Amino acid sequence: MSTAPAMLIGTAISTAAFPQLNNRLAQGRPDLFRKDFLKIIRAMIWIALPVTVVCFFTRGYLAHLIYTRNQPQISLIFGYLSLFIFFTTLYTIISRWFYSHKDTITPLIVSVFTILLDFILVYTWARQSSYGIAGLALAQSCAAMMEVIVLTVIMIIRDPKLFDREFWAGVGRSVSVTGFSVIAGIIMLTLLPLGINDRGFLLLGSKLSLIVGVVMAVHVGVSWLFGLEEVQPIFRILKKIILKPIRVQY
Question: From start to end of the chain, where are the E strands?
Answer without folding.
Answer: none
